[in-house]
Amino acid sequence: MKIIWIVFFIFFPVLASANSESEVEKFMERFYHQFNSSSDPGSLKGFFAKSPVFQLGEQPAISSDENFAPRMIEILRESMGVADFPYTGFSTDISNISDDGSAALAVVFKRAKSKNKYQKALCSIFSLAKLKEGWKIVGWSMYGTTHESRCTWA
């Protein structure tokens, strides 16, 4: 019986970590598809914590307005020309998921064409937290660039 408990305590954290990685991966995939669609920006509200922080290039954005995240999604979609040139894929280059319920991801949204040469790739760092309702975006820092290879992660 002792061996069963020892094995359980050794492997349980590994299984929990793998489960969190899978959850975060699925969360980001759902977010990417919803962001990249023509759905109502309000439908993305559930992906965000109640007080998210956005960093658009050098411009920080924070608000107490409950519709802040949907408004930011609307602005981002418009300024990045997502309706005319949707992204064709995304990759998670770095995924740091902690056992305290936090995660940091370096993600690239990619596309072959855009209305502006500096918008072919959207380089993003997402800060996530596992809240009562599941994983939520608490911070999103992003900038557009000419190619996904220009997303450099220190």
Describe this structure in words.
This protein is an alpha+beta fold and 154 residues long. The chain has a single domain (2-150), classed as Roll (Nuclear Transport Factor 2, Chain: A), CATH 3.10.450. It contains two helices and six strands. The chain has helices at residues 2-35, 68-79; strands at 48-56, 59-61, 89-97, 102-110, 121-131, 134-145. The protein has a six-stranded mixed sheet with strand order 2-1-6-5-4-3. The longest helix is centred in the N-terminal third of the chain and has 34 residues, at 2-35. The protein is globular and about 60 Å long. It starts with a helix and ends in a 9-residue tail after the last strand.
State the main characteristics:
single chain, 154 residues, alpha+beta, Nuclear Transport Factor 2, Chain: A, 6-stranded mixed sheet, 2 helices, 6 strands, 30% helix, 34% strand
Runs in which pLDDT lies below 50 for 5 or more consecutive residues are 5-17
CATH fold-type name = Nuclear Transport Factor 2, Chain: A
| First and last CA, distance | 47 Å
Largest sheet: 6 strands, mixed
CATH class (first level) name: Alpha Beta
Q: What oligomeric assembly is this protein in?
A: single chain
**Chain-averaged pLDDT:** 88
Order of helical and strand elements: HEEHEEEE
Spatial strand sequence of the major β-sheet: 2-1-6-5-4-3
**How would you describe the shape?**
globular
Total number of domains: 1
- What's the Cα radius of gyration? 17 Å
Count of alpha and pi helical runs: 2
**Strand percent estimate:** 25-35%
> Would you report the number of β strands?
6
Helix and strand composition category: alpha+beta
Query: What share of the residues lie within helices?
Result: 25-40%
Supply the CATH architecture: Roll
